[in-house]
Structures are given as C-alpha cells and as structure tokens.
Amino acid sequence: MSIINFIHRSPESPSASHARSNEKAPLNKTPQLISEEVSGVNDEFNQYMEYYMDMIRMKSKGCVLIVEDDEFCRFIIENSVKEYSRDIKIITSASVNVALEILKDNPCDLVIADYYLEGEGNGLDLCHKIVSLYPKTKCLMMSSMNFPQYQKVVAKADTSPEFMEKPIKPSLIKKYLTSFFEDLYF
C-alpha cells in the first residue's frame, strides 16, 4: 500500500497486504471508497510528501478520459487534472458510446466516469467494457449515490472500480491522481 493512505480498502491481513504489494494487484470485487481520511502527520512529513508528490507529477504524462454528462462537474474534474499536471492528455465525453469510440483510437491510463450518464448505459457498464477490452486502463467511478448504495449496485458485478462520492473535491482528485501515477510509474 502506498505511503499516501487515503484510499479506504477492505480489511486484510498484514501478510496479504505485503504479498500483494510485491505483485500486480488482481481484479478485486470489493469496491473501494476514495476519502480524505489522513491523520497524525507532522509538518516535516507533509513537506516530504509535497516534494514526493511534485516528483510524481513531473513523471505524470499519461492520458485521462473523463466521462461526465454534467458540464460543471466535468469542468471541475478537468481542471483538477490540469492543476495536478499540465502534461496529462485529457479527453472528455458525456456518454458510454462516445467514450468507447474514443478509447478505440486513444489509449488511456485512467477513465474517470460518473455513474449516471446520458444515453444508453451507465458508468459501471462502461467500466465493465473497459476491463474486458482494455485491461491496462483503470477506472474510477464517481457518483452522488453514497458508498453503501454503490456497494449494493456492484455486489453482483464482475468488477468494482474504485469509488469517489460527489460533490467532487478537487483536492481529493489530485490525491487520487498522485496515488494512481505513483502506482503506474514506480
């Protein structure tokens, strides 16, 4: 697990966590909630972490697809990614079908998708298709539904992407991107 501990993960034994850190994480059916719960850190540690995050940002030159039908939410997410790193290519879409068309010609490292989208299908449908068609692409689901509701929705699903509740917090998106690119490049 990363030093930046803001991703709520399902409980597991220390030995399972250590074993998993030495290999690629398998697809996990347990949904994960992204939250800002960090406590007990001092100023020196915060300075070190800021420096470390800057180093990760400098290496972050990936591609992020934002699939959100609400223009204001899409704007917030897009600006959060830009603030994190100007070197990341950002592509946007408002529907599942358009997102899948985009992915055919544009390999993306991360797809940030709202659950409720315009047109046919939802963000979870999109993530299922991405897992089967583009296994190297990771999905982050966002929704105004709360985490327990989300757990019920994905209980019978083949995959369960990480989850971030709305309203969207730009600082939380930037923390997630730091963790994502840390895992991608290190």
Q: What can you see in these coordinates?
A:
There is one protein chain. The chain is built from seven helices and seven strands, in the order βαβαβαβαβαβαβα. With 186 residues, it is an alpha/beta fold. It has one domain (44-185): 3-Layer(aba) Sandwich (Rossmann fold). The strands form two sheets. Strands 4-3-5-6-7 form a five-stranded parallel sheet, sandwiched between helices. The protein has a two-stranded antiparallel ribbon with strand order 1-2. Helix 2 crosses helix 7, helix 3 crosses helix 7 (170-185) and helix 4 packs parallel to helix 5. The longest helix has 17 residues, at 43-59. The two termini are 12 Å apart.
Task: Provide the descriptors you would attach to this structure in a database record.
single chain; Rossmann fold; 45% helix; alpha/beta; 5-stranded parallel sheet; disordered N terminus; two-stranded antiparallel sheet; 186 residues
List the topology elements.
Layout: E1 7-8, H1 14-21, E2 33-34, H2 43-59, E3 63-67, H3 71-84, E4 89-93, H4 96-105, E5 110-114, H5 123-133, E6 138-143, H6 147-154, E7 162-165, H7 170-185
Question: How many domain units?
Answer: 1
CATH architecture annotation name: 3-Layer(aba) Sandwich
CATH class descriptor name:
Alpha Beta
Strand order of the largest sheet: 4-3-5-6-7
Low-confidence stretches: 1-25
The CATH homology group name: Response regulator
Q: Whole-number radius of gyration? A: 16 Å
The CATH topology annotation reads as: Rossmann fold
> Which structural category fits the helices and strands?
alpha/beta
N-end to C-end Cα span = 12 Å
Portion in strands: 15-25%
Helical stretch tally: 7
Number of strands: 7
Mean pLDDT: 79
- Topology as H/E string? EHEHEHEHEHEHEH
Question: What percent of residues adopt helix (DSSP H or I)?
Answer: 40-55%
Shape: globular
Largest beta-sheet details: 5 strands, parallel
